[in-house]
TrEMBL record:
Record-level GO BP terms: protein quality control for misfolded or incompletely synthesized proteins; rescue of stalled ribosome
Active-site annotation: H30 (proton acceptor)
Top-rank EC class of the record's enzyme: hydrolase
UniProt name for this protein: Peptidyl-tRNA hydrolase
Length: 198
């Protein structure tokens, strides 16, 4: 197997954060992808604007690359349409797409980066895979941990982070944004080597 290269074949790459739209969901665990994209938008120095692809987008430069930051305007389980529509508008192949999302199977704050793979029960990823017609896009997985006791994972992801987690959250979101920058500037293996510790 060849070593995965940088996302995208050209200079431009699409960075997608997953979440649910609206203030009601803003602090939910499921919305950590949006939180990371907000941090990246601050680094780019842009503000999200509605785009006909079905997402809020910011265009700019990050880590020496031209980037399109996108937050789908649909609910999580319908993320695929806006992601595929935005990628098509910017003429980007799936290999030029990086999706930042919450991950139940990782402890809070852990990061894992990968290319391809299954959706692991994540409805946002399932929708994106279906709409892009392939699993071969990049994922940056932000650990949110497992629900306590017998709580339904579907309820857990729609709850806000705990008080203890909220104290750490800005640091972890910042670190995840660093991981995205490393991925698009140094490639997958280098980013994994830096951010998969622990």
């Amino acid at each position: 197997m060849t070593t995965p290269e940088l996302p995208g074949t050209g200079e431009q790459v699409l960075l997608v954060g997953l979440g649910n739209p609206g203030p009601r969901y803003a602090g939910n665990r499921h919305n950590v992808g949006f939180m990371v994209l907000d941090e990246l938008a601050a680094r780019v120095g842009g503000r999200f604007k509605a785009h006909k692809g079905g997402a809020e987008v910011v265009e700019g430069r990050l880590a020496g690359r031209r980037v399109v930051l996108a937050k789908p305007r649909s609910f999580m389980n319908l993320s695929g349409g806006p992601v595929a529509g935005t990628a098509k508008f910017y003429k980007l192949e799936p290999a030029g797409v990086v999706v930042v999302h919450d991950e139940l199977d990782l402890p809070f704050g852990s990061l894992k980066l990968k290319l391809g793979g299954g959706d692991n029960g994540h409805n946002g990823l399932r929708s994106i895979t279906k709409s892009l017609g392939t699993k071969e896009y990049y994922r940056v997985r932000f650990g949110i941990g497992r629900p306590p006791g017998r709580m339904d994972p579907a309820d857990f992801v729609l709850k806000d982070f705990s008080t203890v987690e909220r104290k750490e959250l800005p640091f972890e979101v910042d670190r995840c944004a660093d991981a995205v920058e490393a991925l698009i500037s140094k490639g997958l293996v280098a980013a994994q080597n830096t951010f998969h510790a622990g």
